[in-house]
Amino acid sequence: MVHRSAGSLAVGSLAADRARYDRATAHLDAPLAIVDLAAFDANAADLVRRASGKPVRVASKSVRCRTLLERVLAKDGFQGIMSFTLEESIWLAREGFDDILLAYPSVDRAGFAAVAADPKLAGAISVLVDDPAQLDLIDAAREGGTEEIRVCLELDTALHLLGGRVRIGARRSPLRTPEALRGLAELIGRRPGFRVVGLMAYEGHVAGVGDSIAGRPFRSRAIQLMQRTARQELAARRDAVVRAVREVADLEFVNGGGTGSVESTVAESCVTEVAAGSGLYVPRLFDNYRSFSGRPAALFAQPVVRRPGVGVVTVLGGGYPASGAAGADRSPVPYLPESLRYDPQEGAGEVQTPLLGSPADDLRIGDRVWFRHAKAGELCERFATLHLVEGDRVVESVPTYRGEGRTFL
Question: Rounded to whole angstroms, what are the CA distances from 243 to 91, 132, 153, 182, 269?
Answer without folding.
Answer: 34, 21, 14, 9, 11
